[in-house]
């Protein structure tokens, strides 16, 4: 699947896998929601909120080598798609 695309995308949540699967199905998403019920991964990326078990709504752009290229800490629902496209263009992703 990834070989067809220049970009792989997904979301991640501290909710249980079953909760995320139901949510993804209800929205008819075409991408996966990864589950991090322990919050360990969210903590490692610095996105775990100090109270409760929730992650900040940040977008992390990760290169093929696993290095973080950019972090968008100001994600806005109304412009998220356009902002994502602009960031990918700025990073030169998808350009041949």
Mind sketching the topology for me?
Elements: E1 11-13, H1 17-27, E2 33-35, H2 40-44, E3 59-62, E4 68-72, H3 80-91
Parallel strand pairs: 1-2
Antiparallel strand pairs: 3-4
Task: Walk me through this protein's architecture.
- The protein has one domain: 3-Layer(aba) Sandwich (Glutaredoxin), CATH 3.40.30.
- Strand 3 (59-62) and strand 4 form a beta hairpin.
- It is built from three helices and four strands.
- The chain is α+β, with helices and mostly antiparallel strands.
- The longest helix has 12 residues, at 80-91.
- It is globular, with a radius of gyration of 14 Å.
- The strands form two sheets. The chain has a two-stranded parallel ribbon with strand order 1-2. Strands 3-4 form a two-stranded antiparallel sheet.
Percent strand equals 15-25%
Number of domains: 1
Strand and helix order: EHEHEEH
CATH class, named Alpha Beta
What's the alpha carbon Rg, rounded to whole Å? 14 Å
Oligomer: single chain
**Reported CATH architecture:** 3-Layer(aba) Sandwich
Strand arrangement within the widest β-sheet reads: 1-2
CATH topology: Glutaredoxin
User: Helical content, roughly?
Assistant: 25-40%
* Number of distinct beta strands: 4
What shape does the CA trace take? Answer: globular
Which terms would index this structure?
alpha+beta; two-stranded parallel ribbon; 96 residues; Glutaredoxin; disordered N terminus; two-stranded antiparallel sheet; 3 helices
Brief summary:
The chain has 3 helices and 4 strands, in the order E-H-E-H-E-E-H.
């Amino acid at each position: 699947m990834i070989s067809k695309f220049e970009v792989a995308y997904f979301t991640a949540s501290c909710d249980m896998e079953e909760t995320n699967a139901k949510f993804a199905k209800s929205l008819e998403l075409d991408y996966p929601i990864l589950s991090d019920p322990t919050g360990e991964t969210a903590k490692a990326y610095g996105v775990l909120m100090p109270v409760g078990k929730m992650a900040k709504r940040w977008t992390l752009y990760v290169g093929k080598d696993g290095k973080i290229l950019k972090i968008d800490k100001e994600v806005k629902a109304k412009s998220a798609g356009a902002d994502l496209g602009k960031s990918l263009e700025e990073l030169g992703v998808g350009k041949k």
